[in-house]
Amino acid sequence: MCYNISISNNKNAIERQLNAKFETEIIFESQKHISAFSNPLIPVITTEDNSKIQLYNWGLIPKWVNNKTKANAIRKMTYNAKCETIKQKPSFRDSIKDKKCLIIADGFYEWQLTSKGKICYYISHPENDIFTFAGIWSKWIDKSTGEFIKSVSIITQPANEMMSKIHNVKKRQPVILHKENRDNWLNSGLNFETILDKSFNIELKNKTIASPLQNN
Asked: What domains can you pick out in the chain, each with its CATH number?
C-alpha cells in the first residue's frame, strides 16, 4: 500500500520538472513526510487541466456520499485503490472512467517486517527527481455548507521483486508512471492496464524509523 510520501522538492523544481504551474493562490510547502492518515492536501495534476498543479485532499470521497460524517468515514478507506478491482468498487468506478490524475511526490516510505521488528525504507529516484503516482480524483459537495471538496486516491498494484522484499506482508506498491506515460494515463479511459509499469528505476535508502513513523 502507500500511506506515507515525501515532497521535498521546492515549488520551482516541481513546476520545472512537470512543465506545469501551481495555481496562483496556492501556498505550497515542501515536506519530508506526509501521512495519509492526517487527510492532507497534496499536489496533483488532473484531467481537467494538465498545465495546472492543484492541491487535493488525500482520501477520495465519491460523489454519491450524502453527508460529512459518511464522507469522513469512507475517506479513511480510499487512500489507495487497487488496480485489480478499481472498475468494480463503488467508491472508484465512476472516477476511473474519466477522472484520472498524477499525484506528485519524490519519495515514499514502506516497512519491512523482520524477526527483530519493522525496518523503514525510503524509496526515491536516484537523482531525487519528481515522480508521479497514477491516481483518480473526485469532486464532492458538502450539502450542509455548499463546500466543494476535491479528493484523490493513489492506485496500487502487486509489488515487483524488489518491493516484495520490502513490503513483505501485503506485497503491494503504488503505480509510478514513467514520464512518457503521464499523458497516456490521463487520457486512457478504461483502457489503462498496459500503462501500469512495475519497472520504474528507484533507489532504496534503509532508514532508522523516527518516532512519528513507528506506529504507521
From this structure: 4-213 (3.90.1680.10)
pTM for this structure? Answer: 0.91
> Beta strand 100-105 with 80-82: parallel, antiparallel or unpaired?
unpaired
Share of the chain above pLDDT 70, in %: 91
**CA-wise closest residue to 79 among 108, 45, 120, 106:** 108
Query: What pLDDT was estimated at residue 55?
Result: 97
Q: Which pLDDT value is given to residue 199? A: 56
Q: Is 194 exposed, middle or buried (0-12, 13-18, 19+ CB in 10 A)?
A: exposed
Residues annotated as catalytic are 2, 110
Give which of 69, 91, 36 is closest to 142, Cα–Cα. 69
